[in-house]
Fold this sequence. Notes:
Number of strands: 2
Strand content: under 5%
Low-confidence stretches: none
Order of helices and strands: HHHHEEHHHHHHHHHHHH
Largest sheet: 2 strands, antiparallel
Mean pLDDT: 95
Number of helices: 16
Strand order of the largest sheet: 1-2
Oligomer: single chain
Structural class: mainly alpha
Radius of gyration: 21 Å
Amino acid sequence: xxxxxxxxxxxxxxxxxxxxxxxxxxxxxxxxxxxxxxxxxxxxxxxxxxxxxxxxxxxxxxxxxxxxxxxxxxxxxxxxxxxxxxxxxxxxxxxxxxxxxxxxxxxxxxxxxxxxxxxxxxxxxxxxxxxxxxxxxxxxxxxxxxxxxxxxxxxxxxxxxxxxxxxxxxxxxxxxxxxxxxxxxxxxxxxxxxxxxxxxxxxxxxxxxxxxxxxxxxxxxxxxxxxxxxxxxxxxxxxxxxxxxxxxxxxxxxxxxxxxxxxxxxxxxxxxxxxxxxxxxxxxxxxxxxxxxxxxxxxxxxxxxxxxxxxxxxxxxxxxx
Length: 321
C-alpha cells in the first residue's frame, strides 16, 4: 500500500506531460500553461487510492485519474472566468493572460480530452465509469449554479448550503474514490460505502475551510483570516450565526455586511463567538467526519488496507492551514 504523498509524486510524474496537440498553439498553449501551475492533485490520487484498496493500481486507474484531474482543471478555468479572478495559485488566470474567449475554448477542449483518457479503459468497466463520471460532472455544474444563485439570495437555509457544497466539492472526491474502487473489482456495496466516505469527508473539509478562514492562525493558515467575512460570503459560520442570533445581533450583522467598516472582521467575529459559532462548527465537522469513518469501517477489506485513506482523512481534517 502506498501513502498519499507517494501517490502524489507518482501521479505527478505521469501527469506532467502535454495532453494536447501542438497546433493551434493559441488554443492549446493556455491549457498547458494552466496545468503547469500545479495543484494538490487530491482527486486523481483518491482515484488511485480507491483502486489500491482492492487491487494493485491498474493502468485503467491512471487513465481515469488523469481524466479526473483534467476535468477538475477545466472547472477551475471556467470558475475563474465567472469569478473574474485575476490569480490562481499566485499566477495569472487563463482568462486574464489569454482573454475570456480563449479561456472558454481552452476549458472546453480540456473537458473533451477527459473522454480520450476514459475511452482507453477496459470495456468491461467503461459503462459504469462513464455513467458515474457524467453524473458527477453534471452535479458539479449544478453546485456551481446554486453557489451563484445563493450570492443573490437574502437568506439561504443551512441544509440547502450543505447540498450545494456536496454538489460543488464533495461529489467529485466521492466519485474519484468510487470509480477507482470499481476499477479494482469492488462490489457495488463497497463502492457505495467508499462514495459516502468521500462525500462526507468533502463536506467536513469545507466546514474546516470556513472555520479556518474565520478562526485560523494567520501564520499557519498562510493568509489573513476573515477573507470570507470581508466578501460577505455565505459560509457555514455566517448562515448558522444568522439562524441563532438575537434580533439585535442580526441587525448588527446586516449593518456590517452593508457598510463594511474598517473593523468589520473583528466585530463579526465577536458576534460569531457570542453565538458559539466556533464550537458549533467543530461539532458539525465532527458529525460528518464520524459518518465518513463509519462508511470506511463498513468496507469489507482488512483495516491495514484502509490505513492510507484514514491517514489522508486525518491530514485533510486536522490541518491548520
